[in-house]
TrEMBL record:
Protein's UniProt keywords contain Transcription: yes
UniProt-listed CDD domains: HTH_ARSR
GO cellular component: cytosol
Gene Ontology molecular function: sequence-specific DNA binding
Domain of life: Bacteria
PANTHER family: LEUCINE-RESPONSIVE REGULATORY PROTEIN, TRANSCRIPTIONAL REGULATORY PROTEIN
Keyword flag tRNA processing: no
Gene3D superfamilies: 3.30.70.920, Winged helix-like DNA-binding domain superfamily/Winged helix DNA-binding domain (1.10.10.10)
SMART domains: HTH_ASNC
High-level lineage: Bacteria, Pseudomonadati, Pseudomonadota, Betaproteobacteria, Neisseriales
Name assigned to this protein: Transcriptional regulator, ArsR family
Length: 160
């Protein structure tokens, strides 16, 4: 991927897109005070450089009957093949939205959504704990979401 240096206009494009990725090029260009052709060219450069990875629709979990959100801390065998196999398996589990390798006492942190406690139990007992590399799993359930955003902070890029 090509490397690019971000200027204030690029950063503004990124900020606006993080707020609303469905804007037309004309709408985007108006919000960043740029004419449509240069705006589209800059956006294409940001995409080609991998800075803009993808566009997505963010669904409300409750509206699609996924009201139980869990964070699951997983400890696995220290063997390299167990880690690689676990990572490959996690990528195939649709319940898991995010998986992070961690430092500290826990090896991985999973964020997963379920329809109810029965679906959660089935996943943990029949999928997660049945995986050959998994040694232990501990779960916490989300009681209330205080903040959720997909927007990255970009103010540090605005060097004066």
């Amino acid at each position: 991927m090509p490397q690019i240096t971000l200027d204030k206009t690029d950063i503004k494009i990124l900020q606006v897109l993080q707020e609303n990725g469905r804007l037309t090029n004309v709408e985007l260009s108006e919000r960043v005070a740029l004419s449509p052709s240069p705006c589209l060219r800059r956006l294409k450069q940001l995409e080609d450089a991998g800075i803009v990875r993808q566009y997505a629709a963010l669904l409300s979990p409750e509206s699609v009957n996924l009201g139980l959100q869990a964070f699951i801390r997983v400890s696995i065998s220290k063997a390299k093949d167990a880690r690689e196999d676990f990572a490959a398996s996690v990528r195939k589990w649709p319940e898991v939205l995010s998986c992070f390798a961690l430092t500290g006492e826990t090896d991985y942190l999973l964020q997963a959504f379920f329809t109810d406690m029965n679906a959660f139990s089935h996943f943990v007992l029949d999928t997660l704990l049945s995986h050959h590399g998994v040694q232990d799993a501990q779960s916490s359930f989300v009681l209330k979401e205080i903040k959720h955003t997909t927007s990255l902070p970009l103010n540090h890029l605005l060097k004066e």
